[in-house]
Amino acid sequence: MARTDVAPARSRRIIRMDQSVARQHPPRRRRGYTVRFDIGGVTGHLTTNAYPDGKLGEVWVSVDRQGSPLSGFLDSLSAAVSLGLQHGVPLEKYVARYAGMQFEPRGPVTDPDIEYAHSLPDYVFRRLALDYLDASTCAELGIRSECR
Questions:
Q1: What is the 3-state secondary structure (H, E, C) of the chain?
Q2: What is the arithmetic mean of pLDDT over 43-67?
Q3: Taking the complete model, does pTM exceed 0.85, yes or no?
């Protein structure tokens, strides 16, 4: 028996990238910092690199659990965020999306500016906001330092 009730074709949303936005590669020699953190028993490092004007250009997050799914997730997130920053995505967009995310590991943080993190991305993007965004932008995004 032939089937007569065929489902209608799904319409797909096509996302087109603006090809006129060129990638701004970071310079060979970069300014940045590395911060060691401990969240919910997971120890790691946040490394940033900035352009000469002080604008964030790269973010790398690594944890002590090499080869774990968490490590792979953070490597992928770091690469995607770095590429986005180099193509002009404002840091504020990332902070608005990732700050406040809640999943394990979570807990007290060994950072005097941020006492508690609800997830690793929550900590990373709040730390980046405090270091690279001005106070009024942080306030608009709901980011505050525990020390202030």
A1: CCCCCCCCCCCCCCCCCCCCCCCCCCCCCCEEEEEEEEECCEEEEEEEEECCCCCEEEEEEEECCCCCHHHHHHHHHHHHHHHHHHCCCCHHHHHHHHCCCCCCCCEEEEECCEEEECCHHHHHHHHHHHHHCCHHHHHHHCCCCCCC
A2: 92
A3: no
